[in-house]
Amino acid sequence: MRRLALILPGILALTVGAPAHAVEPNRLITILTAPEPQTQLMAMVLTRNAIAAGATAEILLCGPAGDLALIDAPASATAGQPPRGASPQAMMLAMMRDHGVQVQVCAIYLPGRDADASVLLEGVTPAAPDAMGAAIVAPATTVMSF
To answer: Is residue 127 within 8 Å of residue 104, measured between CB atoms?
Structure first.
């Protein structure tokens, strides 16, 4: 007991004098390129669950997954998937609406389709490679890629 009485003040002095560190919220960047609707939906499900756990999220759509961002999206983006009938595009739109999730398409997606931003859903924008590159390597950022 005497030993504890001697050690405890030293431990308290070390912890009380330590500077407080601000805790940054976790940031998730979901990069989605997969063409399969089930993979696309799973990316949305995991992103939504990360938000529910306290993360902020952004979504980058490239290649075939960029089609999720189209006003005139293919049926694979809008058709409900088992087990709950949710579609990848509907879940993405819900996260944009309910949680302010920023969705971008890769900078080369629109030129590759010979299209401009007018074909994209409201709120979806082309990504700036320099800004996205910086976001990917920023502290407290997790990148999830499908």
So the answer is: yes
Q: Which helix (H) or strand (E) holds 142?
A: strand 141-145
Phi, psi angles (nearest 5°) of residue 9: -60, -35
Question: What tens-digit pLDDT sequence spans the chain (146 residues)?
Answer: 544 444 444 444 444 444 444 556 699 999 999 999 999 999 999 999 999 999 999 999 999 999 999 999 999 999 999 999 999 999 999 999 999 999 999 999 999 999 999 999 999 999 999 999 999 999 999 999 99
**Which residue is it, tokens 């070390």?**
14
CB 48 within 8 A of CB 91: yes
- The whole-model pTM stands at 0.83
Structural element, H or E, at residue 77: helix 75-78
Q: Alpha-carbon torsion 10, 13, 15, 21, what sign?
A: negative
